[in-house]
Amino acid sequence: MFILDPFDEDMSGLLLIEVFLTALAAVMIAYQYVKYMPYFDTYISVTFGFLSFLFVWIMINLALTYVIPLTGHFVVILIGVVPVFLLVNNMRGRFLEDLLLKPPEKMATELEAITQCYAVYILTMSHSDPEDEIRLIGLINVHLKECQKPECPLTNPVELYDPCTDKHVSDGDVVNLHKNTVFLKHYAKMYFEAAISNFGNYPGVRIAYASFLFHAFRNVHAALNELSSAKKSKPNIMQSFEIYKFEYASPNRKKQK
After folding, report:
1. What is the pTM of this model?
2. 3-state secondary structure the chain
3. Is the pLDDT reported for residue 148 higher than 80?
């Protein structure tokens, strides 16, 4: 097997260019992860981010071989595995935390809006984690205290209704709204409606809202209306497939028929 020596004068220039291009590719992948991080699934998000930043870490050590003519860089790479993992995990957690605290009407992009919507929806369905429960209580209390919109349905919880379960929010449930499924569904719906208000022309937002309406409220008619609007917004190939899968290939959709 032929191995290129980084200190071979005949090949050093070519290797330097190769290392530079590969390092540039590694940085671009890591940047794409930070900018378009797949936040929805913790395992996928952290794993992909870990591999992206580990690639950067490996390329940094490879570049150092041209500067420091020492052995043992492989050991240094292994030592950096755990810090890289902790960095990605902490970065993802802090981003989600900041996103949850940000008002829904102040989302900068449609991706941020969709991410916030799903993060809130997942948070409302998490009933076993004490930290998530405390976080949810804080978010609900801040909204009820600071919301100045008279049309906001959350300010009068007893009027909320869930057609899926045929239940209302009773007077006794007002004390523990963070445990009431009817209120939590409408609380998550508020974020999706804010995303639609700000980024309604983006098919991804419409598709996300349609999925929420179907799974949370079993409102097939409203979900299909959102998908119809998404079709008119020039969806890409992946989004078109999601629309097709929901309309024609979903087992739940067939049950509704």
Report:
1. 0.76
2. CCCCCCCCCCCHHHHHHHHHHHHHHHHHHHHHHHHCCCCCCHHHHHHHHHHHHHHHHHHHHHHHCCCCCCCCHHHHHHHCHHHHHHHHHHHHHHHHHHHHHCCHHHCCCHHHHHHHHHHHHHHHHCCCCHHHHHHHHHHHHHHHHHCCCCCCHHHCHHHCEECCCCEECCHHHHHHHHHCHHHHHHHHHHHHHHHHHHHCCCHHHHHHHHHHHHHHHCCHHHHHHHHHHHHCCCCCHHHHHHHHHHHHHCHHHHHHC
3. no
